Amino acid sequence: MNVEQAVAEAAAKYSNWGRWGEDDVLGTVNFIDAAKRRTAAALVRRGETFSLSQRFDADGPQKGWRRRTNPVHTMLDTGLDAVHGDQGFPHGIGGADDVIAMPLQCSTQWDGLGHIFDHGRAWNGRPADKVVTSEGDQVTGIEHLAAPVAGRGVLLDVGRVIGDGELPDGFAITEEHLTATAEAHGVTVGRGDLLCVRTGRLTRARREGWGDYAGGPAPGLSFWTAGWLHRTEIAAIATDTWGFEVRPNEFEDAFQPLHQVVIPHLGLLIGEMWDLDALAADCAADGVYEFLLIAAPLPVTGAVGSPVNPLAIK
Amino acid sequence: MNVEQAVAEAAAKYSNWGRWGEDDVLGTVNFIDAAKRRTAAALVRRGETFSLSQRFDADGPQKGWRRRTNPVHTMLDTGLDAVHGDQGFPHGIGGADDVIAMPLQCSTQWDGLGHIFDHGRAWNGRPADKVVTSEGDQVTGIEHLAAPVAGRGVLLDVGRVIGDGELPDGFAITEEHLTATAEAHGVTVGRGDLLCVRTGRLTRARREGWGDYAGGPAPGLSFWTAGWLHRTEIAAIATDTWGFEVRPNEFEDAFQPLHQVVIPHLGLLIGEMWDLDALAADCAADGVYEFLLIAAPLPVTGAVGSPVNPLAIK
Amino acid sequence: MNVEQAVAEAAAKYSNWGRWGEDDVLGTVNFIDAAKRRTAAALVRRGETFSLSQRFDADGPQKGWRRRTNPVHTMLDTGLDAVHGDQGFPHGIGGADDVIAMPLQCSTQWDGLGHIFDHGRAWNGRPADKVVTSEGDQVTGIEHLAAPVAGRGVLLDVGRVIGDGELPDGFAITEEHLTATAEAHGVTVGRGDLLCVRTGRLTRARREGWGDYAGGPAPGLSFWTAGWLHRTEIAAIATDTWGFEVRPNEFEDAFQPLHQVVIPHLGLLIGEMWDLDALAADCAADGVYEFLLIAAPLPVTGAVGSPVNPLAIK
Amino acid sequence: MNVEQAVAEAAAKYSNWGRWGEDDVLGTVNFIDAAKRRTAAALVRRGETFSLSQRFDADGPQKGWRRRTNPVHTMLDTGLDAVHGDQGFPHGIGGADDVIAMPLQCSTQWDGLGHIFDHGRAWNGRPADKVVTSEGDQVTGIEHLAAPVAGRGVLLDVGRVIGDGELPDGFAITEEHLTATAEAHGVTVGRGDLLCVRTGRLTRARREGWGDYAGGPAPGLSFWTAGWLHRTEIAAIATDTWGFEVRPNEFEDAFQPLHQVVIPHLGLLIGEMWDLDALAADCAADGVYEFLLIAAPLPVTGAVGSPVNPLAIK
């Protein structure tokens, strides 16, 4: 089967269009409900927090692909100005202030529902050109996800269970790998979960340098997990890689076909470039792979993605 | 007493310098411990979430004071390009992508510990010019707060209890107002709490337009609450105003003297421009003014502030 | 006649489509040739230079209309860091460096040929959606004007000749005003000229504050000068106002109809927000209203406008 | 002699401090006077223009050294929006608009006088920390050079005369090379000239890719040309390399020692990353190596550098 056919077939089989009404702007985040959040909060047993965010700075992995650069953080005022300059403030008060310029998907992020289209169709079947214009996403902007993204987090450390801590580039994580990992962890994955899949790719980047972390070869979800991603009714999935799905992709001349299915057709929330290492080490230590996970995006009006600092609480 | 004396006296009386060791980079966030987070998680009874963030867009309140502008969000790729242009992607996949340029304190935010100095001294007594240079905050950058800022949130709706929903500009919220509000709510404020104080200023801005919301007159904490802020051992305080403390300030020719005491001397985490309205309405309805609050800043390396989407879960 | 009819009629009568071939990317700049530049160079009699640029900084007139802000200039390194910080450079060398974020049309500027469209048509009749995508102007990007924009400059100080130094807002400059001013100056306007029209609007803004300089009422060219602009075969026209044409526009519910004719149909290069005051004072003093004018835009690839520092040499 | 001594000696011997008064903000640009500009204008014989600017876009050579990135140019409105979206404009007018974020020295540029310091001293002996703060260069900001930078340009194509079109990396151009090249060209270099030195480094980058063009090894001026640069009383010098002087520098553990002498002590205007190839080809063809050169920087208030599109007219 070629990639065109594979995408078309998966899109038809796993579509959630209309599932939450014509006006839906949340996609699979609809699977999280209050009851699930209560259960998730009850998972907090120790009170430990884990930030799942990489840092935002000029030393990130971006190399300029499609103008995706690393963040540029600059100061408007500094302690040097406060002490040696003349800030013009009274009674000895001094201040520092700063600005940032960055692609919204330069580091740890959520892909918004307006990020990927299939043959001109956005989430819920809307025409992409009516949804995302130069003024941003007029319909499914990331601001709609400001409140709901908190619930039960589950870590599947596929890198540790299937690999020897780290999966090699090009390794396609299948449904079987996911199931086997869940079983090894003694955890189940289900409706409304915020699923974190660790491949170990970031661990390697940390050790060996970024290299082609942004856009290059990487382990990741197989295209053929689309059915599982649909069937499990998870609310979101996040990985420690640049692009969530395996790269090179599993078809000739293909580019991110799983994105093409799961964002516009499932309405699935995808997280990328998450740092799962500290959390994974803790889970390996205490054998507990579920936790409360809060990952509220920054509500940039009309954004098709958002930087995020996801917080796991065990 | 003039402002110089008042600041000096408060600084001397309420200093936390050295309290958590010479190398401390967390300030009052140290008051949050695992036990407090367990208690906080147990406050989740309904599973409802409330985003306490204003939106980040060009329609914000900033007017350019000290180069603080509103966010500029622009698209790198759009649905229009996907449908009518030539993105150069294969098999019908299309994409949208975006960038942002913004001051880190343009909208809902945390002030980092490197944001304010007193006579050239930063938090814990460090020389401000050794802490914050043009490369950013080398010591207390906001990235150090990536993990811990989650705990028990308490809302004091002073606007509703003391005012008639909204406090007027220039209204100085005193210890007595805070205590009376807590009593009216049937809630206590204590060690490690993340305190949210609603004045109603944002409610008014929403109704009447921004006007001078950014930097102009506003209700806010009285300078004389410094002792209470110290004594209660709260981890953080956030308001729905631009500048947390009352404006005009309570002294002649003064500029944010309470900042000058609580950031460098107490090491207090301050949140500004939070949107507390929906949460306050809910608290008024169910009479419950405590909740789990997660407000992890974006870990911009060396930043002296951070945009944040705080999430309250009741 | 309503604005739709007026635009359509002018577009039909004054079209330059095809005049310089199907592939043309220069428009009326084609009117400048080497001979004209030789003549222009010969106008340099004293060797005095006049910068016709406003400054680029946060104190500019922009108020955020369609995300047009003032420039934000921030430092990456400063003299404070060199002296009191640790830049890490050897043998006592220190440095300062800086960045800017700005709309390309925030201050003194050229409008590129891809800046304005008429009913979906760009310069030379091209479909606007094939010319300017999210990747910029793929055909007539401002970089094509990097070399040729140098020639004979002529100042028509309409503010001084027709007004009393300054024209009032809403004053429509007609062909008669232009002709009378040229006559008063003893200068002719013709093929390949870079025409500068001073209204005095900037002079007033300087005295009274920006107010609505950006986008508000202003004197400017009458819609009915389209024929004159076409017939004179000037290469470019620049004014000291935000929008070149008179505002409010001369039709009900209209927005910049003269732009709609002269950019896509004439291919005319338009300069806005130029500072003509010092030059005008000098011309009034010596009675010479022609000069060598060099106004090479910054070759930002694919840009639809460019900041520029035009230099007049007399 | 070590680099510290070499710099100190050269600084002492070639200092221009005080030469143009205590308040000077122009440095060697003072050497250009009206008479020289008249002579320069008389060099325009054919009326041909040559843009000496590289393009400003994401495909530039910057790799993030000290946060120097390539420009990020994004669209606010496009032809796609005009045709298929809804811009909300009346009577069929449509528009495109854009923004840029860039270091001021990311591409073809002038170094401002506040760009480099020697042991904490800026141009004319001023303390660097009083000159350049977080608010920019308070004294010698590039805006002071808005008007005067126009005069006689001279090209020394050292790459062609001494090399075989291109000099190798690490090649130190000496006074002898400069003199020999001038002689070969039949041109003299003197007071007030704007000197362009072509090494061929950009030609190579164009052929082979950027590689380490930004900051890596390159041919360039020898440290020992400081005396010649002083004695000739040129107003400015520009090269087709990233850093003007030879790299690696001619001393152990050194960084740009010639900058350290010529900017703060001579007050010399330095241009970098100029594109001299088309001009050089023309000069080789017609044997004329002098021309009118206009290179007015963008007057960004307080900037320590500026993008520029230098225009040579022959």
From TrEMBL, chains A, B, C, D:
<dbReference type="InterPro" id="IPR037175">
    <property type="entry name" value="KFase_sf"/>
</dbReference>
<protein>
    <submittedName>
        <fullName>Cyclase family protein</fullName>
    </submittedName>
</protein>
<dbReference type="InterPro" id="IPR007325">
    <property type="entry name" value="KFase/CYL"/>
</dbReference>
<dbReference type="Pfam" id="PF04199">
    <property type="entry name" value="Cyclase"/>
</dbReference>
